[in-house]
UniProtKB/TrEMBL annotation:
ANK repeats lie at residues 511-544. It comes from Aureobasidium pullulans. Residues 263-420 form the VLRF1 domain. This is VLRF1 domain-containing protein. Residues 58-81, 131-151, 226-257, 311-330, 446-468, 596-689 are annotated as: Disordered.
């Protein structure tokens, strides 16, 4: 490979299951195990605290990027007994679990949430030591409160409280609204080279390196990458004889033929979830091929297998076993099929792992994605003759987002893992962004300084607190129209009847500053009379608007209460004219006027009632006449039955009687009629004699 070209893994549809490395136009993009065009000795490890700058979040800063970055932050490799957040490893799972419950781990979790760096054990012990010194000096002052609380704060909570008191909350909220990328361990290690432009950085996934090397110095990391360089192999020899009828198709490479074992470094990749399972063993040794006179490199898939079983409940999600555990076993046909498929998938996966045990045991790294208890139990057991164990130091996760478990997704993940990332940075954009951040920081500092300069509200004095309490009580009694209680409260507390509500600058108290003003504005004549006659309130007192209580009264009854008080108290009690109160109104005149108005109202009501009765009767008669006229117009004038039907002759009567009879009955009827006529003549003749 020349210095102006590079290779990249890419899966092709080929019956030999070979992944091709197609040539790219980007001269810097290459596989991790083939960095031969750029000497590794020229590589320099960039400061990892600038990882966020190397792969900026802002699209403006990213001029070109040859690979799609992962969306996940926590892509650091971690073994089964290590803490990626704190950067610690443990010999057993029990110690790891104890560490997760420790104050150090909890403190680092808080640091990551704030976008800050994690601290080591020594730094944390120093922080706790400073905390103990500060607490010991204040034990005597806080002993009473500690006894009341019943228990002391934990070390972690006390440390967080201390830091919260030191920091300015507003400033912290402003500066940490956007969590910085790379607050923990970034998934990529970035390098620069003297043979590359200064604004170009090369990235390698941290998870490809051993856990002990990841925390080492730059020389160790570069030496490890150098040791991983592999020489390409010649293309596999194919049989020259024509394929027989039994074989058919294209022959498989030697790695896939029976009775062969994997030689050379290789990775095991596995994904399981939602009833889908895919596994693959890929050799890291590239193979050189020539096609049409052009060099081409290929990565051989030593073995691959995919399974799919219907185990997920449609439109509801979750496995059937999880649903059975939560709600009990369902007895539907679909549930039975899913249970059978789950058991079959577990058996098939474990059998495949057993068949691939030689390849798995000799793999350099094991990349596994298995989310959920059921999927992890399928791979890691425990079960008899299990192949994988969760404590294996070679196990890695995929430090980027993955899709459904398929062979193509495994190959894409392998390409993404082993491909060198290239990032080109716009220095002008970085400087512009730094200026914006500096301006934002200065604005936040100015805001914090202005807040500190703002005077705190003055604590009210004892007199102001008492005035506020009296204001609340008096206004509540007035609004509930409690006249006796109002007078009693003023008397018992030795308050002036012209007590001014506090504070006086609010709109409510500005319009009605005294109890008399408030009672008049609420149209409460009973309260006005009680305040004037019993409490001796001054009606001449004016509000800030220059109005007396009488001038803000809203109805006649309230204004009459002022005139009655003027009559009862006398003209010398107050300057009634300056208060705006009209001439005095005696009680007798008031009662007479009330009675007169009552009588007038009763007479008006009676007249109105009579008018309504007369009008109702008139309307009823009009409706009756109108109805009769409507009937006469529709049917005509009514007549008697004699007027309507004309008199019939004897012959017409006889014909009407015989209508509908047979001839025999008519003859019989005629004989009877003649017999009656003869009898009538005989009687008449005998009577004349």
């Amino acid at each position: 490979m020349t210095s102006d070209t590079a290779a990249l893994f890419r899966l092709t549809k080929h019956t030999t299951f070979v992944a091709r490395w197609r040539k790219l136009s980007n001269p810097y993009c290459s596989a991790l195990f083939m960095v031969e065009y750029t000497r590794i000795d020229t590589l320099e490890l960039k400061a990892q605290n600038n990882a966020a700058v190397a792969v900026p979040d802002d699209p403006e800063l990213l001029a070109s990027n040859s690979s799609r970055r992962s969306e996940t932050e926590d892509g650091a490799p971690s073994s089964a007994t290590s803490c990626g957040l704190c950067g610690l490893s443990f010999p057993s799972v029990q110690e790891q679990r104890s560490h997760v419950r420790s104050d150090l781990h909890g403190y680092n979790m808080k640091q990551k949430m704030r976008g800050l760096k994690s601290v080591g054990e020594n730094d944390f012990e120093k922080l706790v030591g400073d905390l103990d010194e500060s607490i010991s000096g204040s034990d005597s002052d806080d002993s009473a409160s500690s006894d009341d609380d019943g228990k002391k704060d934990t070390t972690l909570s006390a440390l967080l409280k201390k830091q919260a008191n030191i920091a300015d909350p507003d400033f912290d909220d402003f500066t940490t609204t956007k969590i910085k990328v790379g607050a923990g361990k970034p998934p990529l290690l970035w390098f620069s080279s003297s043979k590359l432009p200064s604004n170009v950085a090369l990235g390698v996934y941290r998870t490809l390196l051993p856990a002990a090397i990841q925390v080492g110095d730059a020389a160790t990391i570069l030496q490890t990458i150098k040791d991983k360089q592999l020489s390409p192999k010649p293309p596999p020899t194919q049989p020259t004889s024509a394929p027989t009828e039994d074989s058919g198709g294209v022959p498989l490479p030697r790695s896939l033929q029976p009775d062969t074992s994997a030689t050379g470094p290789h990775y095991f990749l596995c994904m399981i979830g939602g009833g889908h399972f895919a596994a693959m063993v890929v050799s890291l040794t590239p193979k050189m091929n020539k096609k049409a006179g052009v060099e081409d490199r290929a990565a051989t898939v030593l073995a691959h297998k995919t399974f799919h079983r219907y185990t997920t409940r449609r439109k509801q999600g979750g496995s059937q076993s999880a649903n059975d555990s939560a709600k009990g076993a369902a007895h539907s046909a679909g549930a039975g099929i899913r249970r059978y498929n789950e058991a079959a998938l577990i058996a098939e996966v474990r059998q495949l792992l057993q068949d691939w045990k030689v390849w798995i045991d000799s793999s350099e790294l094991l990349f596994i994605r298995a989310t959920g208890t059921t999927n992890r139990r399928t791979l890691f057991g425990p079960y008899e003759n299990q192949v994988l164990t969760s404590r294996d130091q070679r196990i890695r996760g995929f430090p980027f987002a993955t899709r459904r478990a398929t062979q193509a997704e495994l190959m894409r993940s392998f390409v993404e893992l082993t491909r060198v990332k290239v990032s080109t940075i716009d220095e002008a954009a970085i400087a512009r962004k730094a200026q914006e951040e500096e301006a934002a920081r200065q604005a936040a500092e100015a805001k914090a300084a202005a807040k500190l300069a703002t005077p705190k509200p003055v604590k009210p004095t004892k007199e102001e607190e008492e005035a506020s309490l009296h204001t609340t009580q008096l206004q509540a009694l007035i609004r509930r129209s409690k006249a006796p209680a109002l007078v009693s409260y003023i008397t018992s507390n030795n308050l002036s009847p012209n007590f001014t509500f506090f504070p006086s600058d609010i709109p409510q108290n500005h319009h009605a500053p005294t109890p008399l003003h408030l009672a008049a504005s609420l149209n409460a004549p009973a309260l006005v009379s009680s305040l004037l006659l019993k409490a001796k309130a001054d009606p001449t007192f004016k509000s800030a608007e220059g109005k007396t209580a009488f001038e803000i009264a809203g109805d006649r009854a309230t204004r009459d209460s002022f005139r009655l008080a003027r009559s009862e108290l006398g003209e010398n009690a107050f300057d009634w004219d300056s208060a705006g109160v009209p001439a005095a109104l005696s009680k007798a005149d008031y009662d007479a006027r009330v009675q007169r108005e009552k009588d007038e109202k009763a007479a008006e009501d009676a007249a109105e009632q009579q008018r309504r009765k007369t009008e109702t009767e008139r309307l009823r008669n009009e409706d009756k006449v109108r109805e009769e006229q409507s009937k006469e117009k529709k049917f005509g004038k009514g007549k008697t039955l004699a007027q309507v039907l004309p008199e019939k002759t004897a012959q017409e009567k006889r014909e009407e009687e015989a209508r509908g009879m047979t001839p025999e009955m008519r003859m019989k009827l005629e004989r009877e009629r003649r017999a009656r006529a003869a009898e009538a003549r005989f009687k008449a003749m005998s009577g004349n004699k």
